[in-house]
């Protein structure tokens, strides 16, 4: 099990905190989602935090450089289990089977910073996306990622 990040005391002895403010338009997909989470469900803030951790915690821990490959693999596996449980919940709630709509039947196009699921034909990835090995997001990549985020 990976080590938990240590408490970093401030001069006053309090825990160091991360402040996160997110104010999407209430009619946007993000606004509808977070409004429902915060006002329409039990422990919505924790559910949102759990979802973010399932997607990104292994990457954040890897970037810290403080964890072994085995610890990161264990953390990634735990994230996969959380996401698979949510996938199963979605399938059961909305009557979606594994059949023809499975990602196994679709093409996955990837680069270091973006993954695109292609459901029809071939997706062309701009050379700047495919060739950037720095892990940094350039302007074109940020625009592309924003477009995908807007759809979600």
Number of strands: 2
- Termini separation comes to 32 Å
* Shape designation: flat
Query: Approximately what portion of the residues adopt beta-strand conformation?
Result: 5-15%
Low-pLDDT sequence parts: 107-138
Q: Residue-averaged pLDDT, rounded?
A: 73
Q: Which class best fits the helix and strand makeup?
A: mainly alpha
Q: What profile does the largest beta sheet have? A: 2 strands, antiparallel
Sketch the topology as an H/E string, one letter per element: HHHEEHH
Strand order of the largest sheet: 1-2
What is the alpha-carbon Rg in Å? 19 Å
The portion of residues assigned to helices is 40-55%
Number of self-contained structural domains? 2
Total number of helices: 5
